[in-house]
Design goal:
two-stranded antiparallel sheet; 8 helices; globular
Length: 262
């Protein structure tokens, strides 16, 4: 899909959930936002308040819709639900903790490592399936007439959205992480790098009023919490600590992130 219809696209992940905090797989299942997750959503709302967002689209899953509601209220916009923004279906692995996955499906990690893009969760989806859904979601958003939309979804489907919007290779897209205190901004078709806007919510800051800190970095400029990196087919801004953790991040705040094998 070409993305010249958009001036800019903003991608936000839902706030940390109760299952994220214990590393339980969610997929199409759901759990409520934690106090930290709500704080992350409020911080992202403050971060986006000065951006020219003209529409908000959300995954149908509760954690994304709750987050989108907080963001949309700050922007003064309604939320439109897009089913194709839902997270990859983890099938039979949904609701399981890491040790439960290994016990029930020995060899799962090794099998998936052989073909991370094509591997399909038992009774669920693969990244390849999600890739097609991401293209449909972007087509639906473009057809709405939105030119600077905010998409509130999930980390795994988000990789495929960034693949299309940023013109990334599959390998580069799969290497991305999306913590819940980061909003990606993409200007499709311009050749400009994918930009990371960070609300940077400390793990010990919950409740109260939180103001988002806009943190941007330029190519070649390494900062405290961000940098540009060159990829095979595009340019990505990623935090330095994420360069070593190219896996899903069930812990949604920098102080809480751990790599997982999802």
């Amino acid at each position: 899909m070409t993305s010249i219809e958009f001036e800019a696209v903003y991608l936000a992940r839902h706030g940390q959930t109760q299952w994220n905090a214990v590393r339980r797989r969610q997929g199409r299942l759901d759990s409520p936002l934690t106090e930290l997750g709500n704080a992350q959503a409020r911080a992202n709302a403050a971060l986006l308040a000065s951006e020219p967002v003209d529409a908000v689209f959300a995954s149908p899953l509760g954690r994304a819709r709750t987050t989108a509601g907080i963001l949309a209220e700050a922007l003064g916009l309604p939320v439109s639900v897009c089913d194709d923004l839902a997270e990859i279906d983890h099938g039979a692995l949904s609701g399981l903790l890491p040790d439960e996955v290994e016990a029930a499906y020995p060899g799962f990690a090794a099998a998936r490592d052989c073909d991370r893009y094509g591997y399909r969760f038992p009774g669920g989806e693969s990244y390849q399936d999600a890739d097609a859904r991401a293209a449909r979601a972007l087509a639906q958003v473009a057809a709405s007439g939105a030119r600077r939309p905010l998409l509130v979804s999930h980390e795994m489907i988000g990789r495929m959205l960034l693949k299309h919007l940023g013109g990334l290779s599959t390998a580069d897209a799969l290497a991305l992480t999306h913590p819940s205190d980061v909003v990606y901004r993409v200007a499709p078709g311009t050749g400009r790098p994918i930009e990371q806007l960070s609300a940077a919510v400390p793990s010990d800051v919950v409740g109260g009023r939180i103001r988002g800190n806009r943190q941007r970095s330029r190519r070649g400029d390494v900062r405290d919490r961000g940098r540009w990196i060159e990829t095979g087919e595009g340019q990505i801004s990623k935090r330095g600590d994420e360069l070593l953790a190219a896996q899903e991040t069930p812990y949604a705040s920098p102080a809480l992130e751990r790599p997982s094998r999802s």
